[in-house]
Specification:
The chain is of the alpha/beta class and 246 residues long. The chain has a single domain, classed as 3-Layer(aba) Sandwich (Rossmann fold), CATH 3.40.50.1000. The chain is built from 10 helices and 8 strands. Helix 4 packs parallel to helix 9. It starts with a strand and ends with a helix.
Length: 246
């Protein structure tokens, strides 16, 4: 069976909503925290906690209004429908926050897609319109602090040994899971990473392009050419090493 795993920020959405939200409400401090995380000075969880602290005091209506202006790649709507029609399970894996993911998906009628992410509680501050942001990380990996939500673990737990894993992403938190995926669609930072690490991939700019490529791969598979939809040897070795504790 084919299973598709999809990044959210910058992949489904046109920009990184999480970074944009924290910078909008946490200011330059949040921008600095993001830079410190990317340079390896702080962990992902530390970054989220610091960003949330810096953004606390925001007005909830302003926060929601900001999120309601965020745009998605509209061709993702048709891609989602295509996967449903073809019976292809697909999941969203995000190192962002469920609060904005759920709100954005619902606005575009996509709230039936299973997604996995970090959790963000908003609590009102002493009867005011200000909110305190409280992040938690139920899907972290205790042995790795690169990401707060371990996409690799979720992806592998949702896949059987003979499933063909398709991964679609663009950024920093996608670097780990693509090592374990059989078919990779990459753009932006992830594309550069795949080139550097010699991970085979298909370049894309929109989900319309992903859909066209996937249709072609499925046609090849049904005609037994099977050029693209097959297990990737390097991914199989990465999974084996993980299971063996390597």
């Amino acid at each position: 069976m084919i299973k598709i795993f999809i990044d959210f920020d910058g992949t489904i959405t046109k920009k990184d909503v999480g970074d944009s939200m924290f910078i909008e409400f946490g200011g330059e401090a949040s921008r600095n925290f993001i830079q410190q995380y990317r340079s390896g000075e702080i962990s992902a969880i530390e970054c989220f906690k610091l960003e949330s602290e810096a953004s606390s005091g925001a007005i909830k209506k302003d926060l929601d209004d900001f999120l309601d202006k965020q745009e998605i790649d509209v061709s993702f709507i048709e891609f989602h429908k295509y996967c449903g029609d073809e019976g292809i399970p697909h999941f969203i894996l995000s190192d962002g926050m469920d609060y904005y993911i759920e709100r954005i998906l619902k606005r575009f009628g996509l709230n039936n897609i299973p997604f996995f992410s970090n959790h963000l509680d908003l609590t009102m501050h002493d009867g005011t319109d200000e909110v305190i942001l409280n992040p938690t990380f139920p899907l972290r990996d205790e042995e790795c602090d690169r990401c707060a939500c371990c996409k690799r673990n979720i992806m592998l737990s949702k896949s059987a040994d003979d499933d063909i894993i398709v991964y679609i992403g663009e950024g920093f938190s996608d670097r780990c899971p693509v090592r374990y995926a059989d078919v990779v669609f990459a753009k932006d930072e992830l594309l550069i990473y795949c080139q550097q690490e010699n991970i085979s991939f298909f370049e894309y700019r929109s989900f319309a392009e992903v859909k066209i490529r996937l249709e072609s791969l499925l046609t090849q598979k049904s005609s037994k050419k099977n050029f693209g939809l097959r297990k990737r040897r390097q991914a199989q070795l990465a999974v084996r090493d993980l299971l063996l504790g390597g």
